[in-house]
Write a structure and sequence with these properties.
Elements lengths: L10 H22 L4 H25 L1 H7 L2 H30 L9 H22 L5 H12 L3
Helix pairs in contact: 1-2, 2-4, 4-5, 4-6
């Protein structure tokens, strides 16, 4: 945010601000839904979708400035970070879909705890992955490129 602040004079900056506000409301829903794991999982998937959209808006907003001032390695890192967000969105979407269609049965009641633990660990791993960019090679950059081809 220090380097690429939200410039509300630009349309993409307005979208980033809108996504920030949407995230705040989503966090509130996440906090008050603690008794309903299914809702929590869907809210987390939604939050990561908004992160993906936020990253897109940031790329559009600062595209001109970064194209002239940053090198190819920095552009690759930026694309990889956007790819990380998209990758983890898919992970959280799989969690939500799995829980939706494979709800815990009486024969395996601890599935709630397994999914909850996996979700918490995944949230931490996302943050670590975004910061450290381990496994940043071509897959993450290609994920970002996929969204560019789809014009999202």
């Amino acid at each position: 945010m220090k380097q690429h602040w939200i410039d509300v004079e630009r349309p993409s900056g307005k979208w980033r601000f809108f996504f920030d506000v949407l995230l705040l409301f989503s966090y509130f829903v996440l906090l008050v839904s603690y008794q309903y794991l299914k809702r929590e999982l869907w809210v987390l998937a939604f939050i990561f979708l908004v992160f993906v959209l936020w990253d897109r808006a940031k790329r559009i907003e600062w595209q001109e400035e970064t194209s002239t001032t940053t090198g190819s390695e920095e552009k690759s890192k930026s694309a990889a970070r956007r790819g990380v967000t998209l990758f983890w969105f898919f992970i959280f979407l799989v969690f939500a879909l799995s829980y939706q269609f494979l709800a815990p049965t009486p024969s395996f009641p601890c599935l709630h705890w397994v999914i909850l633990t996996a979700t918490i660990l995944s949230t931490l791993l996302y943050r670590l992955h975004k910061d450290k960019l381990w496994w940043k090679d071509r897959v993450l950059v290609r994920l970002d490129g996929l969204l560019l081809k789809l014009d999202i």
